[in-house]
Design brief:
This protein is an all-alpha fold. The protein has six helices and no strands.
Amino acid sequence: MEYMYASLLLKSAGKEINEENIKKVLEAAGIEVDEIRVKALVAALKQIDIDKVLESATAMPMAPATAPATAPVEEKKAEEKEEEVVEEEEKELTEEDLSAGLGALFG
């Protein structure tokens, strides 16, 4: 993972993503460099347009953080009714039902 971070850091800094630069970034972070991984990363990244990948990754739609607060009143009422039904079902469980369930767990 740190190898990918190193390449993204170089991209962000406008530096060339090559073996030497990746090694420098990793060594500066105190990471022991694996030459094979560095070579594989550089070879793989030559075939990828990082800008397009980053653009598509940041273009993914996200749900607004305030979605529950802006839900229509009707939806809230329906949710409340569902919660009431669940609560009623939970109350209907007797001690006998619960002990039978525990018996199934332990044998």
